[in-house]
Design goal:
Blueprint (H helix, E strand, L loop, with lengths): L21 E3 L2 E3 L8 H7 L2 E5 L2 E2 L3 E3 L5 E2 L1 H14 L5 E5 L5 H6 L5 E2 L7 H4 L3 E2 L4 E3 L1 E6 L19 E5 L4 H8 L4 E5 L2 H9 L5 E5 H4 L10 E7 L3 E3 L2 E2 L6 H17 L1 H8 L17 H8 L6
Parallel strand pairs: 3-7, 3-8, 12-13, 12-14
Antiparallel strand pairs: 1-2, 4-5, 5-6, 9-17, 10-16, 11-14, 11-15
């Protein structure tokens, strides 16, 4: 599996609405208002975190029915960091449109749910330092009988047919970078995958964190091209207010230390995500990407 991702330009996206269930071990309970300051969380003895359960490899249900993934690893280690116990948490699976509303309506303490930082979102919630830099990438499919891939670089897509989610933020990125390509809108990643397998399109453009989930650990007919055309920092979202500053600082300090220890990179690589230093903007304090994000005021204070 190739992890040779380059080309950063900072362009971002948006979303919002409300979570249905809590998952604690094998127990399911009803939601209730729980957002709290760090001292209250410690007194309570557990932290409640909104997560994804259908977005491999960030958060998904595995073959054994367990909630797992890169962001789930982060959630469990954060519980261990704040409370001394990796199981001292309640995970709340949420839909994309529910992620920020869960935080705003005090249904959860924080959200670790594939949330990218945008200026609009920063007006209503606080963000930690980014724990991963996602972006728009391209994936191709090579039939088993093919011997040599015909598309190996972004330049090979100049006059190709590319599928992507209809009306997504990916569309203007691709249209700008590849003006000669024919764009095909689809309603879901699954539909795009089907078109790719049947040879109806040459490539699919989408979030790297999703496309990485299409790759198997061994031989795979898919190839992620060694470029991406936008940069979208994933971050922990939490309520605004001075009373949450201690929680924000504790999370930032933990993320910084995990990066310095190599733990974030190791878990990203384990789940098949690109794991170069550029994927951990604002944690690699000397990186140019980190400085650019800081100057654009995307990073948390």
């Amino acid at each position: 599996m190739r992890h040779l991702f380059t080309s950063l330009s900072f362009i971002l996206g948006a979303q919002l609405l409300l979570p249905p269930i809590f998952v604690l071990g094998n127990r399911v309970t009803s939601p209730r208002a729980v957002a709290a300051e760090l001292a209250e969380i410690r007194d309570r003895g557990y932290i409640t975190i909104a997560v994804k359960n259908n977005r491999a490899p960030l958060g998904f249900i595995d073959d054994q029915g367990h909630l797992t993934g890169y962001e789930i690893d982060i959630a469990r280690r954060l519980a261990a960091e704040l409370l001394g116990d990796a199981s001292a948490l309640r995970l709340v699976p949420v839909r994309n449109q529910d992620r920020l509303r869960a935080v705003l309506d005090d249904q959860v303490d924080i959200a670790i749910a594939a949330i990218t930082i945008t200026a609009a979102r920063r007006r209503i919630v606080s963000f930690s330092h980014p724990y991963y830099l996602d972006g728009v990438g391209f994936i191709t499919y090579q039939p088993p009988q093919a011997t040599q891939p015909t598309i190996q670089a972004l330049s090979d897509l100049r006059l190709s047919t590319i599928a992507m989610l209809d009306r997504s933020s990916t569309v203007p990125h691709v249209r700008y970078i590849l003006p000669g390509a024919q764009l095909v809108g689809v309603s879901s990643y699954r539909e795009g995958q089907r078109l790719l397998i049947h040879g109806e399109v040459d490539a699919f453009a989408g979030d790297l964190s999703v496309l990485a989930g299409w790759l198997s650990p061994n031989d795979t007919p898919y190839t992620l091209l060694p470029s991406f055309i936008s940069a979208e920092p994933l971050s922990v979202a939490m309520p605004k207010g001075l009373q949450y500053r201690e929680l924000n600082m504790a999370i930032n300090q933990a993320l910084q230390r995990w990066y310095e220890e190599g733990w974030l990179q190791e878990r990203a690589a384990y789940w098949g995500l690109p794991a170069e230093s550029s994927q951990f903007v604002n944690l690699a304090s000397e990186s140019p990407a980190s400085c650019a994000l800081a100057q654009s005021r995307i990073c948390a204070p």
